[in-house]
Amino acid sequence: MITQPLITKRCGNIDPLQIDSALKAGAYSLLKKVLDLSRLQVIEEIKNSKIRGRGGAGFPAHIKLMSLYQENSPQKYLVCNADEGEPGNFKDRYLMEHDPHLIIEGMAIAAYAAGTSRGYIYIRGEYQKSIEIMKQAITQASAKGFLGSQILGKDFSFHLEVRSGAGSYVCGEEFSLLESLEGKAGRTRVKPPFPTVKGLFGYPTLINNVETFANFPIIMDLSGASYAKIGTPSSTGTKLLSLSGNIQNRGVFEVPFGIPFRKIIDELGGGIPEGRQLKMVQLGGVCGPIIPEYLIDMIVDYERFEVFESKTGAGAIIVIDDSQDLFELLANISDFFAHESCGKCTPCREGHAQIRKTLDKFIHYQACEKDLISLESQARIMHQTSLCGLGQSAPTSIISALYFFRNAFFDRINASNCQEVSA
Amino acid sequence: MIRLTINNQPIIADENKTILTIAKENNIHIPTLCHYSDLGIHSECRVCVVEIDGQKGLSTACSTFPKDGMVIKTNSPRVINSRKNTVELLLSNHDASCTTCVRNMHCELQTLANKLGIEEKRFESVLDIKELDLSTPSIVRNPNRCIKCGRCVEVCRSVQGMSVLDFHGRGQDMSVGPAYHHLLADVFCTYCGQCANVCPVGAIMEKDNTDDVWEAIHDTNKHVIVQIAPAIRVSLGEELGLAVGDIVTGQMVTALKLIGFDQVFDTNFTADLTILEEGNELLSRIQNGGTLPMITSCCPAWINFLEHRYPEVISNVSTCKSPQQMFGALAKSYYASKNHLDPKNIFVVSVMPCTAKKFEATRPEMSVNHEDPDVDISLTTRELGKMIRQMGIDFTHLESSEFDGPFGETTGAAALFGATGGVMEAALRTVVEVLTKKSLDNLDFIPVRGMDGFKEATLDLNGQSLKVAVVHTLSNAKIICEQIKNGTSPYLFVEVMACPGGCVGGGGQPYGSTREQVGKRLKAIYQVDRDLAVRKSHENPSIVKLYDEYLKTPLGHLSHELLHTHYHDKRS
Q1: Which of A3, A123, B111, B284 has its Cα between 20 and 30 A from that of A73?
Q2: Which among B65, B120, B124 has the least Cβ separation from residue A357?
Q3: In this structure, what CATH number is given to the domain that contains residue B424?
Q4: How many helices (H) and strands (E) does chain B have?
Q5: Are the C-beta atoms of residues A207 and A79 closer than 8 Å to each other?
Q6: How confident is the model at residue B40 (pLDDT cuts 50, 70, 90)?
Q7: Pairing of strands B346-352, B294-295
Q8: The last residue of a domain, from among A195, A228, A261
Q9: CB < 8 Å to B89, chain A
Q10: What is the CATH number of the domain that holds A368?
């Protein structure tokens, strides 16, 4: 098998609502171990593991941890970003609903290392079940002394609470998430300052994805150096993948970095149903690039993604077969972002409507060559000038489609009744 | 200090300044739209983007701090293209009926579009026409012109501490306005008008009353008189193209006469009268154990704030009407009988640096005959500028003329009403002389001057120390009110003005008043004070005569009837 369950090894084998079943399977044993180490020793292990953030941006986890450790502030916060709103992603939900204690343990380890006593787990509003399970898990962990004051008899306190949004996609963006946590509307902030300097309520804050936190106990178990041997040199460890779309087996799979996408689609996904052909794959979610069939031998790796001026995303693989129309797909994505844009900055607020109008011309066979130029320019400008990650990544699908499927655009223009009106 | 390059020009700069500031200091112009010098970093419009070597995206100059060795281009093809595109996008969701817009030729978006060479409508309009908010007598909001730059939201939140305006909704449906899409009249808006002043386009402005004034002027049955506030003489020139802080008192009087007002009076006269009434009220409160500290009552936005937010402090506020309303009351009583005019035929216009004054003029308690308003119409500096332009008056070449009597003779103390600390200083010039029974050697009370938001001064009076405070902006008014509520206010007398810098920074002043401009207007106010022969209100001969002839004594029976008012708890 190409899967390698590390963070999912307890999933399905324990009862997420019974802490005792998790304890029997080893939960919180690493927290005990960590509390005997110095804070810097813990950060050193994380550094040696070379783990990068699993939320999408791929920032080295130890740097953020170290920044927070070094901040000398009366209050520091730890925030777990569980606002999994990116279409095509459901791996954080899987973890929360199957092994909540791994996340709590990971957060407690990070809190200890960074020197924070208060944390929040911000869960997507639609994830009612995850919210319920995490809340129960926190209550049970507190009762057992893994959370709260004087944890395991040590001079370490960590209070953790669940918070949730009202269903806005942009709240997954870290600044919007902080605004939402503070009780404000989910609209991003101007950076710098970054959260590790000035985050929640103006205090230094460490924000990580669910999966990143879940990896911390694994790293402390295996040792940073051993963990670093899993995956590829630039992307260590495993990645949770959310496989969806036109594919036999949809679901969450944990694989080491470095596995080719084709293997994942064929072996884990079981191929395309109904005798259809694979046409394209969208990586990371709807904010990610759309790649053609001939590129899916590419391996899962942070560096490979940077080629697309894009981040890995959180690990979604959306498989699209040959029954799907590229332009309908792009229009659908554009509608999504138009709806989810917070409206704060001009390119994102006003740009989607114009992109959508241009895509409509392609859908309705009314496109001219100038529409292609306009679409490309709009997409690039939105990508380059938007205030936050939403606007910057929203046009990735279009930019990648214009790159990999350029002929499809020309074919549509040639088949169109172009009514070029000169001013 | 660090080294960087902007447009191939080597520059040594302070890394604690933004690229925008550094560029400006080096005469490199980067266009902006949401940026406003006094209002922190927004970075929302994305107009000020620049290209930084080695960075894939474009960065906004207003929010980016440079690093050593940075190579920046402010006008590369990528930058120009992006900037133009952004403004075109703004125009696609904007009611660009420029020729019928109040901001035509004074609009930051229009100017920018012109500078960027936007000459075709590349994007189809997506504007969804919404209704105008015409609910208040002071301020009009036109959401169809709003470009969501957030300046009004920021000034309302961070300067005034009110947060009456905020963003609503998201994506293209995002809009700016009061919570739950309420009308301005239905929320606790003080009508200070700072939002209108900072708006780059014609989305928020005063309710225009110039047509009402023209109609009255052209009505032969009406005796139309005008009073003009202290702050207008140092800002009207600016509105009409002269330098910021130019003093244009004489030309202004000439222009008002040319417009056709029957008599041109000075609100400074009733500012002097206010000092007599308010000064005596303070003395009476001190001597008779009245509520202290006493707070000034000239600023109508402050009074709105008081009634909405801190009604428990009402007894601290002077019962004196504002100079605008004292003038209106006298015009329709004393002036009418002296000139054998039917008050019903007198039409009183005021020119104020203020949008809240329009609301004040409509207050039911501001009516001597309990029927008609004492002040029929209150105009802003901008509206007067408009009338002067409409008349085709060449303001820069006007001869000077004098105010008409009896409300034309004024003092330096009255002129100070236009500045933060001015009412305090004017009052002290009178109160201190009364209390010490000695003539002041130095009339300048420096500690109460200047742009600090919260100023205090301690005066030594016959061995007794008297603590006073001067605040401007409603954020600072809140501090004073909280102190009084908690019983921790150490002051005897407090001046509150809602706008930054006082009336010179009023919401009705020329658009885009920055601290720098307000500072120049303040200087001009002090110049007006210095240039006047009489600088103490109680020494104004016309005021002395008014008491002799008519009012008899400050706080007397007629004063109470005409010059004092009361406030309401409007919190519920």
Answers
A1: A123
A2: B124
A3: 3.40.50.1780
A4: 20, 17
A5: yes
A6: confident
A7: unpaired
A8: A228
A9: 346-347, 350-351, 354
A10: 1.20.1440.230
Residue A415 — left, alpha, or beta (φ > 0 → left; ψ -120 to 50 → alpha)?
alpha
Contact between B212 and B377 (Cβ < 8 Å): yes
- Interface check for A345 against chain B (CB to CB < 8 A): the answer is yes
Beta bridge partners of B139: B206
Give the helix ranges, DSSP H, for B417-556. 422-436, 474-486, 515-531, 541-546
> What pLDDT, in 10s, does the model give residues A275-297?
999 999 999 999 999 999 999 99
Q: Is the ipTM of this complex over 0.90?
A: yes
- Specify the number of domains making up chain B: 3
* B258 and B163 assigned to the same domain: no
Q: Among the three residues A267, A297, A321, which one is the final residue of a domain in this structure?
A: A321
A223 and A247 in a single domain? The answer is: no
B248 interfacial to chain A (CB closer than 8 Å): no
Q: How confident is the model at residue A301 (pLDDT cuts 50, 70, 90)?
A: confident
Q: B496 is written with which tokens? A: 């509150």
- What is the domain-level CATH number for residue B137? 3.30.70.20
**Active centre residues of B (catalytic):** 278, 281, 298, 318, 357, 360, 365, 503
Could you please report the per-residue DSSP string of B43-103? --S--SEEEETT-SS-EETTTPPP-TT-EEESS-HHHHHHHHHHHHHHHHTS---GGGSTT
Q: What is the extent of the structural domain holding A64? A: 19-228
Per-residue pLDDT tens digits for B411-448? 999 999 999 999 999 999 999 998 889 999 899 999 99
Report the residue from B63, B78, B171 with minimal CB separation from A190.
Answer: B63
Do both B281 and B150 map to the same domain? no
d(CA A397, CA A321): 16
- Give exposure, A27-56, as e/b (b: 16+ Cβ within 10 Å): bbebbeebbebeeeebbbbbbbbbbbbbbb
**Could you tell me the CATH number of the domain that includes residue B14?**
3.10.20.740
pTM for the full predicted model: 0.93
Q: How do B71-73 and B454-461 pair as beta strands?
A: unpaired
- Stated as kind and residue range, the H or E segment containing B274 is helix B267-288
End-to-end, the C-alpha distance of chain B in Å comes to: 55
CA distance B185 to B511: 23
Residue B572 belongs to a domain: no
What pLDDT was estimated at residue A311? 59
Mutate to test the interface with A, among B172, B175, B176, B180 (most CBs of A within 10 A): B172
Both B186 and B281 in one domain: the answer is no
How many CB atoms sit inside 10 A of residue B64's CB? 23
Residues B284, B429 share a domain: yes
Domain coverage including residue B12: 2-75
The last residue of one of the domains, among B191, B206, B221, is B206
What is the mean pLDDT of the segment spanning B119-145? 96
